[in-house]
Amino acid sequence: MLVRRALLLRSSLAFNRQSVQAALRSLIAKLSTFKTVPSNGLALFCGYVGEEGKQKKIMTVIEPLKPLVSGLYRCDSKFHLEALYQQLEDSKTYGYMVIDGNGFTCHLLNGNCGKTIYRLDVNLPNKHGRGGQSKQRFERIRQIKRGWYTSRIAEVAISQFIDPVTCRPSITGLVLAGSAQLKDEVLLKLDPRLSGIVIAVVDVQYAGQAGFNQAVALTKENIGNMKFVHEQETITSLMEEISKDGQYAIGIDDTMYAVTSGILDTLILWDNLSVNRIELVKTLSPSDPPKILYLPPDKQIPENLNEEWKVRSSVPLLDWILEHYIEFGCKMELVSDQTNVGAQFVKGFGGLGGLLRYQVELPSNSAVDESASNEEDEFEYEW
After folding, report:
1. Cβ partners under 8 Å of residue 279, min gap 6
2. Domain pair 6-88 / 93-224, same fold
3. Which DSSP helix (H) or strand (E) runs through 177?
4. Do residues 202 and 218 make contact, with C-beta atoms less than 8 angstroms apart?
């Protein structure tokens, strides 16, 4: 019973029959130490690495976050962690269908990740002013093609949002978005399994990705506190402060100055920031205040600093912030580059910014003011 409910995984760089049997014996011995089965089952990893004769055994036992629905045994050169990675994903997934006369798209929203999973382009005939005996025929053709189109959307919804294994919806809720009455006609033709989880039918002005973003903004109250919506609101608040030249800091230098000075209220940080925080001290007088540099991993320390300064520590800036941000009394919001606003924040501002407690002069502003004053002095001198 215990072995059947366990997830047995094994890895070896150069596995053979003897190492496989040795790994299985180690797993069985480890399982014998458990008197009862954990409620979520067990994930066991065992393998041998190194050259033959100098092999080292690696074994780890993990209790999954959620119950394991099936057993899995793999004998491979690597550990298979897919079953555990799936449990780390947000359990609530919402489906969106954006429909108009030129086509429709299907989207999935999970956590802070929104993606397009299906797209179909069509060319439905529009209403026209041609009269005569052909008017009713044109209208009948239009209605036939419109009915085919809405029926096709209902079929695609089944293939995209119904799990073929369980025959149940693979999403928590479904949102229909579009213009005119097409979305209402689709709602009448939806499979009962999907029509029962429709949480909103909204009007949007756009199609495709733009329509999906607008639909998410209109249904944020229906889908609850999703990371996708929260991330958009966080970055939008920063953009609003920038547009009115308000209380904000962007870029590594200004943001870190605001953090260490205690004037930053909310720190907005990209969850994949690749910058190192390098602390330098003077070679002859290490007790003097250190110099802090923020450099990408592929950038070296300037040569003019190598003689007078030496490196005391070099750590990823992301890790340093996660460890010390509470000491400076600021709140932190981790964002990704999976959304449009998140990608804009990363590309435009380097993935680091924040909202200030009050408006102050930051280092970048001081540098601009000094250069501007120098230009004015030179101009007046020449004149």
Report:
1. 290, 291, 292, 311, 312, 313, 314
2. no
3. strand 173-178
4. yes
Strand, helix or coil at 101?
Answer: coil
pLDDT tens digits for range 339-377 = 778 888 888 888 999 999 988 888 877 654 554 444 444
Question: Which CATH homologous superfamily contains domain 6-88?
Answer: eRF1 domain 1 (3.30.960.10)
Backbone angles phi, psi at 173, to 5 degrees: -155, 160
Which long-range CB contacts under 8 A does 214-223 form with residues at least 24 apart?
Answer: 214/177, 215/96, 215/98, 215/175, 215/177, 216/96, 216/109, 216/114, 218/177, 219/175, 222/173, 222/175, 223/92, 223/94, 223/109, 223/173, 223/175, 223/199
Residue with tokens 């912030």: 321
How does DSSP classify residue 237? H
| CATH match for 93-224 among 1.20.1070.10, 3.40.250.10, 3.30.420.60, 2.60.40.10 | 3.30.420.60
- Select from 3.30.1330.30, 3.60.21.10, 3.40.50.12780, 3.40.720.10 the CATH code of 233-367: 3.30.1330.30
Per-residue model confidence as pLDDT tens digits over 233-285: 888 899 999 988 888 999 888 999 999 888 999 999 998 888 889 888 887 77
In the chain, where the domains are located: 6-88, 93-224, 233-367
Looking at the predicted structure, is the pLDDT value of residue 378 above 60? no
Query: In the chain, which residue ranges form alpha helices assigned H by DSSP?
Result: 17-31, 82-88, 135-161, 182-189, 192-195, 208-218, 220-223, 227-243, 252-261, 303-306, 317-324, 340-349, 363-382
